[in-house]
Amino acid sequence: xxxKSQQVAYWFFALCMLLFALQIIYGFIMGFARIGMDGLHDxxxxxxxxxxxxxxxxxxxxxxxxxxxxxxxxEEAQRELVSVKLAYVQLxxxxxxxxxxxxxxxxxIWEGRKFLEIPRELxxxxxxNVLLFLGIILATLFKGKRQTTxxxxxxxxxxxxxxxxxxxxxxFDSQVTDSFFxxxxxxxxxxxxxxxxxxxxxxxxxxxxxxxxxxxxxxxLYVIVGLTFLSGILGTGHHYYYIGVNKIWLVVGGVFSxxxxxxxxxxxxxxxxxxxxxxxxxxxxxxxxxxxxxxxxSFIGAGLLGFAHTLPQTNIFTHGxxxxxxxxxxxxxxxxxxxxxxxxxYSLPNITGRKRHDNTNGHLAFWLSNIGMLGMVVALGVxxxxxxxxxxxxxxxxxxxxxxxxIHFVVMLLCATLFTTGIILYIYEFIKYGKPSxxxxxxxxxxxxVS
Amino acid sequence: MLSKSQARTFFLGGTxxxxxxxxxxxxxxxxxxxxxxxxxxxxxxxxxxxxxxxTNNCMGCHTILGEGGYYAPELTKVIDRxxxxxxxxxxxxxxxxxxNGRKMVAYEMSNEDADAVIEYLKWIGEIDLNGFDRVVSPxxxxxxxx
Lengths: 451, 146
Known about the structure:
Chain A: It is found in: Membrane. The complex is a heterodimer of chains A (451) and B (146). Chain A has helices spanning 8-34, 46-77, 84-105, 120-143, 149-163, 175-210, 214-235, 248-277, 285-310, 312-318, 322-352, 360-393, 398-433. Chain A has 13 helices and no strands. Chains A and B meet through α1, α2, α6, α7 and α8 of A and α1, α2, β1, β2 and α6 of B.
């Protein structure tokens, strides 16, 4: 680590760990409710658990992206952050807004718009918080000694993510229009600008971990984010097939959604090729596992599983079923959770100065969480197919179909236990690393690359 | 071989072109002549119903227009399937409605609020969903007539 201000990232990552742990707890509450064990219903009904589960996901990933930016931008711009104090103010205010929102969900204070449940009053605080974050990042970047493509793509992703939050704040009388513009936020985030952020972090990690020339990596980064927008922007149409808007989206959404896996395929090939091309080996094997893993799992989860149910002919049956939840879990895990865990794994030894690179717990955390998540996704997929077949093809009542799918949630809970064991090990390792240390400033990361 | 500046041009050019097409298609599908949602039938009561729908996070369990929590039934054609009186009774119930043991929050809505939610659901039921309405609610009356 070269700059002291990069230590700020540690506290963002620590908040990530806390929120991720809470997200999993609420996931279990939902899973148990689905098999009839809903003893917490009076205090935490399903809609509360779900809003907390999905919002914590969004917030911990955003917190991770912010932490990644505070770590990456000083190194790329070759200067300290313009204000460490303001970065801590931003972190604390982010945590306060999060706590307020999540507490409110337990008292029926929310907006009931999937993924955007935060009440509009709090939206304004989110906007101020994000503006402060962007101010720090942009000022650091443009006062820096250099503006690299990696830093620019990462920053562009963060700026667009902030801008795209705004359409979600407009009130519409019509449910159809509301839904239409809600997807501007949700889809264009996760299948658009968040991929820029993922690409930026991935490029930074590949430069550091493989030793491949920056110019080569950044050239392909442009191609990948180009493919992302080329397919992802018009791919928004797959959310518009059956919500009450024009049929033209069946064609546009169908064609461009089919192209969306290309960006993820390119990302996976890019990561694997750069790893193979690299002539140097980095001792941080755990970070390498998470990095390459993210690129491959995102291709399967976001690319292939997304493609599997965004063809209009399929989607007419799977829209609004557990099939969506199956795709959602693997896509978020592969594309975003794993890349955040990758940057944390890479930066922790550099921030703390403790080189716990290649230990058993770290590897176990990777494999248990990945096998557990794959099992959860398969269980959700089977439950989704059962639901589609019984409810939509045979015309059975919703709850009768749900009863038939119950057993798959038992399997899902078992797999979730395996997943959680992996994440507990990851968090345990995070704690074992200890706090940031100034000694780490004297150790140059690049010197540990070995031929 | 592709140069870095060509790659940058591909990214910027592709993004601008597809974004402009996206905006064009948005304007096209929002034009009154292409309305499939009976926008003119949105009354004050429907708006109030939507507000109640959101402030109680009904979407956290149910789905509407295929969007929501997959924990409770799709409500797009629910008035057709179940009839307004039953739905009103559920919304006003002081004890949780629990079909097959799966509980719903007891909202104990006033007469006025329950009527607004029903008007909202009626308006939703009339939207042209490009065929999805007939798949999602196989028990709806219009489907049963066929």
